[in-house]
Write a structure and sequence with these properties.
The chain is globular. It has one domain: Glutaredoxin. The protein contains five helices and seven strands; from the N terminus they run E-E-E-H-H-E-H-E-H-E-E-H. By secondary structure, the protein is α/β, with parallel strands linked by helices. The mean pLDDT is 95. The longest helix has 12 residues. A seven-stranded mixed β-sheet has the order 2-1-5-4-3-6-7, covered by helices on one side.
Amino acid sequence: MKVKEGDDFPDFKLMSDAGNYVSLSDLKGKRVIIYFYPKDDTPGCTKEACNFRDNINEIKSFNVEIYGVSVDTIESHKKFKEKYSLPFTLLSDHDKQLSKTLGILSVFGTDRRVTFIVNNGKIEKIFPKVSPDKHAKEIIEYLKSSQSV
């Protein structure tokens, strides 16, 4: 991985499943979860996305937004989001530039499963090893513990 906690999150401009661009400047002043995953509609990635979906109210209670990112196309993201009723934005890093900049592209050309909590453009926390079925709870526990920080 080419970044560490405390670094600025790399600038980006990615197409969303809604057909508009999202950039780092759109997230300034916000605390966001940006999670990278290998591929839409595969067992582990579906489990992780649905886990975020099922815990969305508790996660949003911490005033954070969730963005899922993979190298899949916007069309793939739209189908994945609709199939599983995902209540958060999916971003396409189809040219793999952000993944390469972060150093999280696997040898297979997909993203490794890594999550970043970004606060006002800075990397607050990195989760470099993610268990798809437990990750949302891990994020919630971190958000609870970091409230007093």
